[in-house]
Amino acid sequence: MKMTKKGHACVRIEKDGRLLVIDPGAFTEQDAVTGADALLVTHEHVDHFDEGRLRIAMEANPAAEIWTLRSVADQLAAAFPGRVHTVGHGDTFSAAGFEVEVHGELHAVIHPDLPRITNVGYVVDGSVFHPGDALTVPERSVDTLLLPVQAPWSKISEVIDYVREVKPRRAYDIHDALLTDLARPIYDTHLGNLGGADHARLASGESVRLER
């Protein structure tokens, strides 16, 4: 598989000429959804879910489909009958030739005074895990963890412990739009030294080949 990092929490995964896009949100470039055959959305926050971008992708490709949780699906299903699928923890499905498992149920705690919303993560082809906005530990081993490296709901010690608990072979940063260039070397050093997995970050538009 080829994985391309896009802005913030969005990635594009390609295999056998098919394209899967996860979490094209408001902090993501407009071209993140170009050519998408399938789209996955982890939750309703705008940095992960941009309705306009999803509509563009669905209108550009009449065969494209979306898999997401109910709060997002309810906003799109009427416009695209039969092409928007509601999923939850424990579900499995095929999307554009990718095998996908759903793990997790709730967004991480931002503050105890704020109600928690639903959040799901996706394991793609038994290899790559995108957790959305949660430190969900999938109920299986994964080779590649897409790591929410910085958020209002996390601190670096929690991120490090999360990598240790998941135990991937490699971790690539996502959820990084608010992380300044001054802070990145600090995060890189701590995650590289303490996480227990190969750690790397990709610039927006940069791609890697993922081999199992």
Please, how many helices?
A: 4
Instruction: Tell me, rounded to a whole number, the average pLDDT.
Output: 97
Helix content: 10-25%
Task: Write the H/E string, N to C.
Answer: EEEEHEHEEEEEEHEHEE
How many strands?
14
Biggest sheet: strand arrangement = 6-5-4-3-2-1-14
What is the general shape? globular
Walk me through what this model shows.
With 212 residues, this protein is an alpha/beta fold. It is 18% helix and 27% strand. The protein has four helices and 14 strands. Strands 6-5-4-3-2-1-14 form a seven-stranded mixed sheet, with helices on one face. The chain is globular and about 50 Å long. The mean pLDDT is 97.
What is this entry, summarized?
With 212 residues, this protein is an alpha/beta fold. It has four helices and 14 strands. The strands form two sheets. It has a seven-stranded mixed sheet with strand order 6-5-4-3-2-1-14, with helices on one face.
Looking at this protein, list some descriptive labels.
18% helix, 212 residues, 14 strands, 7-stranded mixed beta sheet
Structural topology:
Blueprint lengths: L1 E4 L5 E5 L2 E5 L15 E4 L9 H10 L4 E4 L1 H7 L7 E3 L5 E4 L2 E6 L17 E4 L3 E3 L13 E5 L7 H11 L3 E5 L9 H11 L3 E3 L6 E3 L3
Helix pairs in contact: 3-4
